[in-house]
UniProtKB/TrEMBL annotation:
<dbReference type="Pfam" id="PF13275">
    <property type="entry name" value="S4_2"/>
</dbReference>
<dbReference type="InterPro" id="IPR036986">
    <property type="entry name" value="S4_RNA-bd_sf"/>
</dbReference>
<keyword id="KW-0694">RNA-binding</keyword>
<dbReference type="GO" id="GO:0003723">
    <property type="term" value="F:RNA binding"/>
</dbReference>
<protein>
    <submittedName>
        <fullName>RNA-binding S4 domain-containing protein</fullName>
    </submittedName>
</protein>
Length: 83
């Protein structure tokens, strides 16, 4: 994974990332949370098994996330929050 793949900002607790709707797809959320740079990078890191949702590896880019779900990649975490 390159430094461009995951934007580096150190954190131990998840950052709340508000969404407008009730659900958001994993690939979209990774971009919204600034954890990756592009949709193609989302596809790559998800397919490689580098993304965890609620502490479980997730390989479906279209996985629907709901408020409270926590997404982790390379030690960085973001939580789906209400807008």
């Amino acid at each position: 994974m390159t430094s461009r793949t995951v934007r580096m900002y150190a954190m131990s607790d998840p950052v709340d990332v508000p969404i407008e709707d009730d659900v958001i797809r994993l690939g979209q959320f990774l971009k919204l949370a600034n954890l990756i740079d592009s949709g193609s990078e989302a596809k790559t890191v998800i397919a490689a098994g580098l993304v965890r949702v609620n502490d479980e590896v997730e390989v479906r880019r279209g996985r629907q996330l709901h408020v409270g779900d926590v997404v982790a990649i390379a030690g960085h975490k973001a939580r789906v929050a209400v807008a």
